[in-house]
Amino acid sequence: MMSNAPIGLFDSGIGGLTVVQEVFRQLPQEEILYFGDTLRCPYGDRDKNEIIRFSTEIGDFLVNRGVKLLIIACNTATATSLSILQQRYDIPVIGVISPGSRAAISMSKTMRVGVIGTRVTVASDAYAKEIHRLNPKLYVVSQACPEFVPIVENDRIETEASKRIVARDLASISTENIDTLILGCTHYPLLKHVIQDVMGSRVQLINSAEETAREASTILSIKNLLNERRSEKRHKFFVSANVDTFRMIGERWLGRKLDVELVDLFNSNQPRTFRVI
Amino acid sequence: MMSNAPIGLFDSGIGGLTVVQEVFRQLPQEEILYFGDTLRCPYGDRDKNEIIRFSTEIGDFLVNRGVKLLIIACNTATATSLSILQQRYDIPVIGVISPGSRAAISMSKTMRVGVIGTRVTVASDAYAKEIHRLNPKLYVVSQACPEFVPIVENDRIETEASKRIVARDLASISTENIDTLILGCTHYPLLKHVIQDVMGSRVQLINSAEETAREASTILSIKNLLNERRSEKRHKFFVSANVDTFRMIGERWLGRKLDVELVDLFNSNQPRTFRVI
Q1: What pLDDT does residue A276 have?
Q2: Which residue among A42, A174, A208, B244 has the highest number of C-beta atoms inside a 10 angstrom radius?
Q3: Contact criterion met (CB < 8 Å) for A98 and B215
Q4: Residue of A nearest to B129 (CA)
Q5: Residue A271 has what pLDDT?
Q6: Which residues of B form the catalytic set?
Q7: Contact list, B133 vs chain A (CB under 8 Å)
Q8: Structural domains of chain A sorted by starting position, each given as residue range(s) with its CATH number in brackets
Q9: Which terms in the Gene Ontology molecular function aspect does this entry carry (chains A, B) (predicted)?
């Protein structure tokens, strides 16, 4: 694998752009390929096997394009598909759950941690399992907030109605006396100011996007895959629907022009050259 | 390599115990072997080749005892010997400089970062090199603080004289308008309250011990080497001199009884079974 190959990332839609933003910030020498499954978004309430099938299709698409590292920039897809994609490809595959879990263990002083996410992520108990695998002593409480993703995907972050939904959905977890709250969905960092207001300044929010970009840096580093060439980057974004909306929102969030292309996964005749273990 | 093998750590003296403390906190299921080179401490003003020789002797000692991961818990030894030890052993070897650098890149908002360390660490420019390898856009300023290690090793942290030395040595870097300061020596977290007072609350301090334990967790995780057995741990500490002083200070810092043994590296007839590449 060449160190100047791109990093692949995917998400059910635009939420994973928070991870892209952090890769651009922390690893500005890396080139990325992003896939947003805007046709089938959201994943958060879907059947587990369906999410695994979607993740595999998208993983194959990106791996076929020669990515050196695959980031599942979606908590729901990480919770369901990480170990399957790790076995499927011979490049490193990381999700967003381990980085957020490790950050919570490192940052919590009181050992009382909260997690918010979609229904599938919370039902999978993936954060509590990962945290307890590393450190069984932490108290972990979680809360599904299924209405947060539509707020972000529909660009209604700053409305009063949205603020009321956030306050209502966090009411229960705010009484749990936690000192650390994992934003267990890549969409949620876009709501972080609203969430911080509800939780209060004593609760530190963990942005899994930020932590994931940092772990990508660690893994590329130990595998000698960091791109140290300062050549021009050609970042590329693929979506399964709604090119124009994706481009408009993405360009505003990332503050740069995006090269966005529509892909029909079912009819893409891609060569199957990756190694299936 | 077995996942229930211990993690090896070494330092010129007691400073590396800050990394041990973080491994205990973040990875309580792991067992550790620690070597403190108290006979030859401090390393900070020594010749580079001498430090490489010491690091290799200690690395061999720990690798011969079957550690699954070697942590150079000393900035000076990391700056001089990391790549040499990475080539020498077939287990993963990490230092404290990359984790601190990655944390600074992730945490700094203004992209203006300071580094304090020993003379050798600062002269090596290792932090600026590592930060710029990942992200050339950061401004990095560094300052040698050679008197901080003796303050910690001699247990004079809370004295007025020590506070004056810290204020004097940080006078220059405090005018640099940085928002993030890397404590580029494993001894310095023990002085963090004094350092924070001098730098002011707007400057976030990066404890490389905390960040290194977290990267150890990432690396053990992707290599499937996390210890998930909850059996009793037998942590072991080796020193090259001053067993009683090491035990006294170490037990106070770590809040637990330590099993400390004196080792004569020159006369230890250990089998040389590791693979030299």
Answers
A1: 37
A2: A208
A3: no
A4: A228
A5: 43
A6: 74, 185
A7: 226, 228
A8: 7-95+210-267 (3.40.50.1860), 97-208 (3.40.50.1860)
A9: glutamate racemase activity
- Which residue in A184, A175, A215, A180 sits closest to A104, CA to CA? A180
State the distance between the two ends of chain B, measured CA to CA, in whole angstroms: 17
**Three-state SS at A22:** helix
Q: What ipTM was predicted for this assembly?
A: 0.82
What was the pLDDT predicted at A267?
62
Element (H, E) at B149: helix B148-153
Of A22, A27, A92, the CB nearest to B222: A92
Q: Does the annotation place B193 within a ligand binding site?
A: no
Question: Which amino acid, one-letter code, is at A27?
Answer: L
- Looking at residue B187, the DSSP 8-state letter turns out to be T
**Per-residue model confidence as pLDDT tens digits over B194-233:** 999 999 999 999 999 999 999 999 999 989 999 987 778 8
Q: Which residues of chain A have pLDDT under 50?
A: 269, 271-277
Cβ atoms of B85 and B56 closer than 8 Å: yes
Of A102, A133, A226, the CB nearest to B218: A102
- Distance CA(A192)–CA(B54), nearest Å, equals 48
User: How many beta-carbon contacts under 8 Å exist across A and B?
Assistant: 77
Return the closest-CA partner of residue A179 out of A147, A148, A157, A201: A201
Binding residues of A for substrate: 11-12, 43-44, 75-76, 186-187
B265 pLDDT tier (thresholds 50, 70, 90) = confident
- The reply to whether B217 touches chain A by the CB within 8 Å rule is yes
pLDDT digit string, tens, across residues A126-161: 999 999 999 999 999 999 999 998 898 788 888 999
**For the segment B148-158, what is each residue's pLDDT rounded down to a tens digit?**
988 987 888 88
B contact test, residue of A27, A105, A231 with most B CBs within 10 A: A105
Q: Are B94 and A222 in contact (CB < 8 Å)? A: yes
pLDDT at A55: 97
Q: Please compute Rg for chain A using Cα positions.
A: 18
Residue B268 has what pLDDT? Answer: 56
Cis peptide before A28 (omega within 30 of 0): no
Would you state the pLDDT for residue A129?
Answer: 95
Q: How many residues does chain B have?
A: 277
- For residue B213, list chain A residues with Cβ-Cβ distance below 8 A: 106
Contact A102 B26 (CB under 8 A): yes
A129 to chain B, any CB pair closer than 8 A? The answer is no
